[in-house]
Design a protein that fits this description.
Length: 269
């Protein structure tokens, strides 16, 4: 029982799972408008209350599993500088003062997130011109307040899934294959993990893209490239500064993409 209690930081586990569930609920208005789907209809065979319960259970199980194994793996391969871990939250839960460390990573994380958002916008232009459904950005950009709510899902839930779980898993696999001289994961192994997690990040966005336009080679390339840019930047931050930094950067990038951009489009149009 003692070993089970110490296998991971359970307080951190429950905080992350709860945050992921909240983020999953907040993204619904954005997702439904983007896909033009109706979650609750009068002729639905499943009552709305039951559908909500089933969705909560689904997200609860998924994020409980990925958070548990993500924390377990990251604990085994975490770096001394806090990389591949959650140095700020872990420190706070251990009653350590982390205000200086948080301030130190806040500005660079926000700046890199804004950079990621800007690069995605610029590089999306040639892709959008080749895809009729994406030429009119106003038609595929939900209102800014829905984008703001969705940003919490990206900054929290997607980072727990993609970085804490998948990237940590790939780093752990590479770590088992080859270690550096000091017994830590090799840089090559970490970069492979960053790229693989970024690819999964892009693939995960294909269903949403397919709901807007026909799934052509151009649309697949657009989805993988644009999401891959963010995935690589967020993965690098997770490696160097920890998951909180990746979360802040991802949230900042989503604010640029899903809040500022729709506002600018609405003003211009």
């Amino acid at each position: 029982m003692k070993n089970f209690k110490n296998i991971i930081n359970w307080k951190l586990f429950f905080i992350l799972v709860a945050a992921c569930i909240i983020g999953s609920a907040l993204v619904l208005p954005y997702s439904l408008e983007l896909t033009q789907a109706e979650l609750f209809t009068e002729d639905s065979e499943i009552p709305a209350w039951l559908l909500i319960i089933l969705m909560v259970i689904q997200y609860l199980v998924m994020f409980a599993v990925v958070t548990f194994f993500g924390l377990l793996i990251s604990k085994k391969i975490g770096l001394e500088n806090g990389g591949l871990r959650l140095p700020i939250l872990e420190g706070i839960l251990n009653k350590e003062k982390k205000s200086k460390e948080f301030k130190a990573l806040l500005v660079p994380s926000i700046c890199l997130g804004i950079l990621a958002g800007g690069l995605i916008i610029v590089l999306s232009i040639p892709f959008n011109n080749a895809i009729p459904e994406f030429k009119n950005m106003e038609a595929v950009a939900p209102v800014f307040w829905k984008g703001f709510l969705a940003s919490f899902y990206g900054g929290i839930a997607e980072e727990v899934l993609l970085r804490l779980f998948f990237m940590s898993l790939f780093v752990w696999i590479s770590f088992k294959i080859k270690k550096s001289k000091d017994g830590s994961p090799t840089a090559v192994g970490v970069w492979i993990a960053i790229i693989l997690a970024a690819i999964i990040f892009g693939v995960g966005h294909l269903p949403a893209a397919a709901a807007i336009a026909e799934l052509t080679e151009v649309l697949i390339a657009r989805t993988l490239v644009l999401n891959g840019i963010g995935g690589i930047i967020f993965g690098w931050l997770y490696w160097k500064k920890g998951l909180e930094s990746a979360m802040i950067a991802h949230f900042s990038a989503d604010i640029v993409l899903h809040v500022i951009t729709p506002l600018v489009i609405s003003i211009v149009s």
